[in-house]
Amino acid sequence: MTENAPQPCDLLIEAGWVVPVVPHGVVLEGHAVAVSAGVIQAVLPIAEARVRFAPIEVVSRPNAALIPGLVNAHTHNPMTLLRGIADDLPLMVWLREHIWPVEAAVIGPEFVADGTRLAIAEMLRGGTTCANENYFFPDVQAAVYKQHGFRARVGAVIIDFPSAWAKSDDEYFDRACELHDNWRDDALIGTAFAPHAPYTVSDANFERVRMLADQLDLPVHLHTHETAQEIADSLKLHGQRPLARLDRLGLVNDRLIAVHMTQLTEAEIHLCAERGVSVVHCPESNLKLASGFCPACALQRAGVNLAIGTDGCASNNDLDMFSENRTAAILAKAVANDATALDAATTLRAATLGGAKALGFDQLIGSIETGKQADLVCVDMAELETQPLHHLLSQLVYATGRQQVSDVWINGVRKLDRRVLVDMDVDAIKANARQWRQRIATIPR
Predict the structure, then answer these.
(1) CA atoms in the 13 A half-sphere facing the CB of 67
(2) pLDDT tens digits, one per residue of 268-295
(3) In contact, 102 and 49? CB cutoff 8 Å
(4) Which of 48, 122, 328, 364 is deepest in the core (most CB within 10 A)?
């Protein structure tokens, strides 16, 4: 190759706009992203890219915004198969009288694999390229995510009662360590500890989680401060609010992924900021279950890393991160009584780099930067619903629907091609979901 010869690359994506997320709030008009071996090689103007690179494939999307893949930072994706079975109920009634009895009847490797596959298809069509998973049979989840080339961090559930996954405390921990050993070196799949919640995990088991998370340098993915009832029960049983109890047990640190966090004092917000805790905001699930309002703006302004998640389909009832972003931004303004709270650029950052940081993946994904993995999403901005296009970032957060996602890549591998899923049989996935509906309909509750 001569000195001035074009540099070979696998893929050149030319877009009307590139939204790199870093630097914050920047939109690059008429730019391209060059990819080789799944890694971003350069972000540069289209004219320069055509001179500098000799790509194997060129994808030209002049009406699209190219954004980092969205990171769904809290999911129970096998629960896509429970979508809509028990709506319009408060959290504990929903869990104890409906979700847990149904799960007891159906949960197993087949249910988990089929639900995860349905979720992957839905997420890809909505521009999500990474999920933070919290559900039973994480070994099965990991295998399905890997099969479909989808990036995930799967949590090993720890809970104080027997399940189809494990029958005793020791078995939960043994299986968690086995999960980590099996996936510790994988390029797409990471693991975490996922103690369910303060009201379902004992001090002794939390201490075991802390010790192992420290030893293995793994995140701890935990529902906490989700409802006012949780706070009241913790004060009655432990004489402390849940976060204070977790702090006493050594878990309030930069490994903690604290989900929901609707009940927070100013002191607790500052503690999270000081310790490097990541908070996952799940606004639509919290609204639907009437759980409360996460003070997202106060957390973000205090310096807490904020991420966004959908929660599971049984309580949301979808995996639509575009809808979640819009709700997060609008709700934050109402909660803070401040129209400037959680602006469009900050919301998009929470849904990409914020989620990546929470998962410990921020050196790999979450922004469009040279050297990062090519987890990329094209969003068609020419649709009627996003016209006229005065401000791209505002339109992406406040007006864009997931049906405008046209193309998706993970690690530089195409997963969605002009709205068509690659290597996934949509008809078969839908038929499988229907047979699960028939099976679940026969379960008494």
Answers:
(1) 30
(2) 999 999 999 999 999 999 999 999 999 9
(3) no
(4) 328
- Collapsing DSSP states into helix, strand and coil, what is residue 418? coil
Q: What is the 3-state secondary structure (H, E, C) of 209-224?
A: HHHHHHHHCCCEEEEE
Q: What stretches of 295-403 show up as alpha helix (H) in DSSP?
A: 296-302, 321-336, 344-349, 355-359, 392-398
What is the per-residue DSSP string for 13-61? EEEEEE--SSSTT--EEEEEEEEETTEEEEEEEHHHHHHHEEEEEEEEE
| Of 16, 17, 61, residue with least CA distance to 407 | 61
Query: For residue 168, which of 208, 119, 139, 199 has the smallest C-alpha distance?
Result: 208
Q: Give CA–CA dist 124/318, Å, rounded.
A: 13
289 with 312: CB under 8 angstroms?
no
Compute the C-alpha angle 228/330/72, nearest 5°.
Answer: 75
At position 306, the amino acid (one-letter code) is L
Residue with tokens 């997931």: 402
Could you give the CA distance from residue 299 to residue 7 in angstroms, rounded to a whole number? Answer: 44
User: How far is Cα 238 from Cα 261, in angstroms, rounded to an integer?
Assistant: 19
Q: Are 33 and 65 in contact (CB under 8 A)?
A: no
Place of tokens 């198969």: 81
- At residue 149, the 3 state secondary structure works out as coil
Tokens matching residue 229: 């009832």
Structure-block tokens of residue 33:
């992203």
